[in-house]
Amino acid sequence: LPEGIEAHRGAVLHFLDDPGNDSDPASGSIEYFEDGLLLVHDGKVAMVGDAEALLPRLPNATRLTDWDGGLLMPGFIDTHAHMPQLPVMASYGTQLLDWLENYTFPHESRFADRDWARTQADQFIQLLLAHGTTSGLIFCTSHPASVDALFEAAEHQGMAMSAGKVMMDRHAPDTLTDTARSSYDDSLALLEKWHNRGRQRYTITPRFAATSSPEQLELAGQLAQAHPDVLVQTHWAENEGEIQWTRELFPDRSSYLDVYDHYGLLGANTVLAHGIHIDDRDRQRLAETGSRIAFCPTSNTFLGSGLFDLASARSAGVKVGLASDVGGGTSLSMLATMAEAYKVCRLRGQTLTPWQAFYLATLGNARVLHRDQEMGNFRTGQQADFIVLDQSASPLLAMKAPYCQTLAETLFNLMILGDDRAIAATAISGTIRYRRATAALPESS
Ligand code: GUN
Ligand code: ZN
């Protein structure tokens, strides 16, 4: 083992592949060390293994952090969230279209102010770290400066973000609308500035069909075709009113999905948020094109949008990621998001195992974002973006922890009862960027 290695001791869990959704994980899909060691060198994972076996092999000067029974996992990844919507969270009483008009658009208008954008982007990044989220696919606003603000804040922490300027040229206040041409030019300039600068990736971001003219979608599609390594993100089939309105706006298209298809916006680089009210033809087209869905359970229940059909998506071969959709979502915590996903599945007569849930939040989401060569698990050479989970972080978790006898029970307890308090620490490329201020419980004496 090389000099300069750093060692973190705790329980270590990560996924090597999709564990499936049966009560036992698919063979070879997980690696777990009850008393493990995560070795970091130059910001990357050097090795994971059994502490007893690895400790004698460490060079003498190795810095060893003992996380005292904490569970080390790859950092969570959020495949859909809105940086400018933090204060839009917990807005009372509306469904999607009224929520956009009454709460979201007025708030996003404030991002014309650069300083406001910077403050909010910093706060967003800090909050992600405090919730154990180390990477994500993020909407900014239509103001280019909001994208600079987000990437600058992410870069400052070494975080790998994918994000873009919202393209929207109609059906919104003129404090937010761009034009087809300006949205293309601004997106291209931001793409040239930020795409592949360090760990940052630009993302082409038409808000959704209803706030884009056909010309704007056409140009967004052209931009995507010209940059085949750039992701595309938008919203799709979230709410009945939205779907009806989209049909009226694009009467020549055979379905909502066909709008995006027509303008060249589907493909393996595309992440569609929601995808609730869809049919088998849609699923087949998603599978054919490799387009992905970001499942946003806390948003879908909060806004009364509907219950995503995870089992049908999986069996049609559609790649699905898990996402907070803050500020429609009610928590930045991927643990809380897993809990809500489980409940949505139950209401659909389905289930979501803790294996599948933790897979989705880590390696599964990395795959959705084409980042699995960089993050999502502890394979040697991955960036050492990791979190330390505290299985007795809150009074409730601590109450239940002694009853959890298996790893599956421990994980399920964390995802159902856990929240940001369960994040003891968050590291980016091996550097601790967040540490919970105080123990949730007094130290036992
Ligand atoms: N559809 C169009 N814009 C938005 C948004 O900001 N949030 C959600 N949840 N859906 C949208
Ligand atoms: Zn959204």
Features:
about 450 residues, Urease, subunit C, domain 1, TIM Barrel, 2 domains, globular, binds guanine
What does this protein structure show overall?
The protein is an alpha/beta fold and 445 residues long. The strands form 2 sheets. Strands 5, 6, 7, 8, 9, 10, 11, 12 and 13 form a 9-stranded parallel β-sheet that branches. It has 2 domains: 6-75 and 377-435, Urease, subunit C, domain 1 (Roll); 76-368, Metal-dependent hydrolases (TIM Barrel), CATH 3.20.20. Strand 6, helix 4 and strand 7 form a beta-alpha-beta unit. It contains 15 helices and 16 strands. The protein binds guanine (GUN) and zinc ion. It is an enzyme of class 3 (hydrolase).
Contiguous helical run count: 15
Oligomer designation = single chain
Name of the CATH first level of the largest domain: Alpha Beta
> Superfamily at the CATH H level of the largest domain?
Metal-dependent hydrolases
Bound compounds: guanine, zinc ion
The termini sit apart by: 37 Å
Q: Count the beta strands.
A: 16
β-strand amount: 15-25%
Task: Label the CATH architecture of the largest domain.
Answer: Alpha-Beta Barrel
SS content category? alpha/beta
Average residue-wise pLDDT: 97
Number of domain units? 2
Radius of gyration: 21 Å
Q: Helical content, roughly?
A: 25-40%
CATH topology of the largest domain, anyone?
TIM Barrel
EC number: 3.5.4.3
Pathway: Purine metabolism; guanine degradation; xanthine from guanine: step 1/1
Domain Amidohydrolase-related: 72-432
GO molecular function, one term: guanine deaminase activity
